[in-house]
Amino acid sequence: MENKKSGKSIVIVLAVLLAAVTGYSLYSNANYSELTEELAAEKAEIKKELDELVVQYDAKIAEGTSLKAKLSAAREGIVSYRDSLTSEKKTSYATIRRYKNRVYSLQAKNKELFAQVDSLTTQNGQLNEAIVAAKQTIETQSTENAELTAKNEDLQGKVAIGAVLSAGDLNAVAMKKSSTGTLAETSKYKKTDAFRISFKINKNELTSSGDKLAYLVIKDTEGTVVAPKGKVNINGKEVYYSDTTTIDYQNIETDVIVITDVNRKETQKGVYTIAAYVDGVTVGSTNVKLKGGWF
Questions:
Q1: What is the CATH number of domain 167-290?
Q2: Using CB atoms within 10 A as the burial measure, which of 14, 139, 165, 292 is most buried?
């Protein structure tokens, strides 16, 4: 009777123990699953933060600053660390804490490095603006200089044109010489010993003052230069001249008179042409008609 009671008690105790062990096991499994899920979520969050850092570095590297090499090296470190996290087989609170601390350190480094990039980008932008402004200033100045040069050249051209001397009242007459050397006007070629040529150089304040060379060219009826004394370049052509004189020109109206001797034995009947040149430019011409006979 007692043996039956004792066996029954043992069964009850065993049943209670089994229930307790089963309950503890279920509780432990539930806690383990919850812990595993929590650690996995923490791991995924850390990986997400690392992925965001990589994206931020890619954007900064794309800006092409002088810190590109430094940024690339930092990015490679983050990628390596992210890969290390991904390959981690066992995850614990200690592991998660270590990775989180590393992420905080990387974010701080990232903030400092990005601040340098932003500062450099701002400086580059300001420098580019200064370069563009300087280029525009240079282009504007170049345009103004070109316009000023064109105006100066135009003005110089006008001054050069205005500086050319002009003359008026060109007159020439044949002269005969008496035994005493006195000259008198004549129209007879057989009595012509000289030509009296006169003209007036006009006032010109644009030309330079000082000595001006005047050349006189007298041609007979056949176009031959009378009493040639040398050659001079007139309008790019070498021509013989009959006489020359130096004029003291002071930018005021100046009268010029030249007596050019000729050999009466070489003169002939007809129209003679007399031209005057000053500074290589024709200032006037006229004709003298010589008649035949003595009276």
A1: 2.60.40.10
A2: 165
